[in-house]
Amino acid sequence: MTSLRYPIGLNSYNLTAIRQVYNEIDETFRKVPEISGSFFLLEGYSTQAVKAVNTVTTAFPHRDDNILVTPYVMYAPNSAIDPIAQEFGKKLRKYLLDGSEDPTHLRAYVNYADGEESLEEVYGWEGWRLEKLRKLKAKWDPKNKMRYYVPIN
After folding, report:
1. What's the CATH code of the domain at 30?
2. How many domains does the chain have?
3. Given CA atoms 118, 120, 124, 125 in this order, what sign does their dihedral have?
4. What is the overall mean pLDDT for the chain?
5. Distance CA 25, CA 153 (A)
6. Domain that holds residue 85
7. DSSP states of 90-134 as a string?
8. Among 26, 59, 64, 150, which residue is least crowded by beta carbons within 10 Å?
9. Tens-digit pLDDT profile for residues 90-106
10. Any domain includes 144
11. Is residue 132 domain-resident?
12. Which residues contact 132 (CB under 8 A, 6 or more apart)?
């Protein structure tokens, strides 16, 4: 099964953007039934403990996000569907980003990232944060064994 993920962290739901997403899902599933096994994940967890820590004391990014939204585009492997599925997932995330409080800065949860996001989109837009992560990486993984998924080097 091919599974593509397009995560985005948000502070709040934008009902107009969510409606655009649902309309796009409905229209696309009708046109491309091969991807109709896809789903749209809306996650909201308690953020009290995360927000209790001063954001500048840690390398963990996107501490202000309250919600994690992830379109999961799933289908049987099919190279003819790949570009359609990728465009679909990117379009859903774009609706959400455009309707967010900060449409110029995508915030993608690293464990759901699709691999095309920039380091800033995954690890935070602050230059000092990336530098801190690089120093921690050099200290705790000097042989670069943990380099597979969204490497920070």
Report:
1. 3.40.462.20
2. 1
3. negative
4. 93
5. 36
6. 2-125
7. HHHHHHHHHTSS-TT-----GGG--S-S-HHHHH-S-HHHHHHHH
8. 26
9. 999 999 999 999 999 99
10. no
11. no
12. 59
